[in-house]
UniProtKB/TrEMBL annotation:
<dbReference type="InterPro" id="IPR028082">
    <property type="entry name" value="Peripla_BP_I"/>
</dbReference>
<dbReference type="InterPro" id="IPR025997">
    <property type="entry name" value="SBP_2_dom"/>
</dbReference>
<protein>
    <submittedName>
        <fullName>ABC transporter substrate-binding protein</fullName>
    </submittedName>
</protein>
<dbReference type="Pfam" id="PF13407">
    <property type="entry name" value="Peripla_BP_4"/>
</dbReference>
<feature type="domain" description="Periplasmic binding protein">
    <location>
        <begin position="39"/>
        <end position="297"/>
    </location>
</feature>
<comment type="similarity">
    <text>Belongs to the bacterial solute-binding protein 2 family.</text>
</comment>
<keyword id="KW-0732">Signal</keyword>
């Protein structure tokens, strides 16, 4: 059955005939041999996202894939509209980075019925039916949260006495916010000194991070550590910490996720203490997977991105050659 399905995909996929079923062939997007990809991006909320968008655009151009790009401005309804429009246009493959985890089954079923393969990139969905998408390419966000917690666990302060932590969460309901919180909580649970005293969303933006950190600082005069789910929120929080007369990186230790250039600069400058990398350069792998899936080849159901971590010394070393 799998072989038959793969063959059906291969026959119908290329040149915009991507599973058009009974729809007329001349409604197809793109030329005969060009693969057409509909890509729905989350938005432009962070430096990470900007680097990811560039990577996808550059890789599509390099791979000779026609990209229909849509920016959802961090709204699920816009992503659903974009996916429906890609189905109508009968693209060969749909890729998207889901803004939140839940609520995708109906639209993914529509893509499946139209025989258009879907690749999840960067973020996962929580659909129980994994046949609704071909693969998920992206980071292990739980692991990222664990790495952040592990670093904190290894600091001398953690065994010296109580450590008050505040957490800036990413977009509510998004896979990275859920998983980074979970991974971090799991690791620090082993040490009763480490306590998250406040946790709130800053929506992955610099302005959100600044605003929420201002409120944290007013409500809690005794913050020891900030764990921010991305660099941008950490950078916004640094502005709030400095405005409150405190020294980021010293009075309040800061852990973030991403390792984009601005974050790495703040780490090298001593304002951040530790960054867990989340690699946005997914474009090349995405285009390879798209070509294979359109050709009806087998692809792995999960492709995990390789990532590292940076302390202040490592950031100084890496900065001159950092691509994003
Ligand atoms: O999904 C990846 C996350 O989304 C990045 O960590 C964050 O910066 C972005 O907005």
């Amino acid at each position: 059955m799998a072989a038959a399905a793969a063959l059906a995909l291969a026959v119908t996929a290329c040149g915009g005939g991507g599973g058009g079923g009974d729809a007329p062939a001349d409604a197809a997007a793109g030329g005969e041999d060009t693969i057409v990809m509909g890509f729905s991006q989350v938005g432009a909320e962070s430096g990470w996202r900007t680097a990811n968008t560039k990577s996808v655009n550059d890789a599509a151009a390099e791979a000779g894939i026609e990209l229909k790009f849509s920016d959802a401005q961090q709204k699920q309804e816009n992503q659903i509209k974009a996916i429906r429009s890609f189905i109508q246009q009968r693209v060969d493959v749909i890729a998207f980075s889901p803004v939140v985890e839940s609520g995708w089954d109906t639209v993914l079923m529509e893509a499946k019925r139209a025989n258009i393969p879907v690749i999840l990139t960067d973020r996962a969905v929580d659909s129980a039916d994994t046949s609704l998408y071909a693969t998920f390419l992206g980071s292990d966000f739980v692991e990222e949260g664990k790495k952040a917690g592990q670093w904190l666990l290894e600091q001398p302060e953690s065994s010296a006495g109580p450590v008050n932590i505040v957490e800036l969460q990413g977009t509510t309901g998004s896979a990275p916010a859920i998983d980074r919180q979970e991974g971090f909580a799991e690791v620090i649970a082993g040490n009763p000194n480490l306590k998250v005293i406040a946790s709130q969303t800053g929506d992955f933006t610099r302005s959100g991070g600044k605003q929420v950190m201002e409120a944290f600082l007013k409500a809690h005069p005794d913050i020891d550590v900030l764990y921010a789910h991305n660099d941008d929120m950490g950078l916004g929080a640094i502005e709030a910490i400095e405005a409150a007369g405190k020294v980021p990186g010293q009075d309040i230790k800061i852990i973030t996720v991403d390792a984009v250039k601005d974050g790495m600069q703040a780490l090298a400058d001593g304002k951040i203490n530790f960054i867990v990398e989340c690699n946005p350069l997914l474009g090349g792998q995405l285009m390879d997977l798209a070509k294979k899936v359109v050709a009806g080849e087998q692809i792995p159901p999960r492709v995990v991105t390789e990532e590292t971590t940076f302390d202040q010394a490592a950031a100084k070393e890496a900065l001159p050659t950092r691509q994003y």
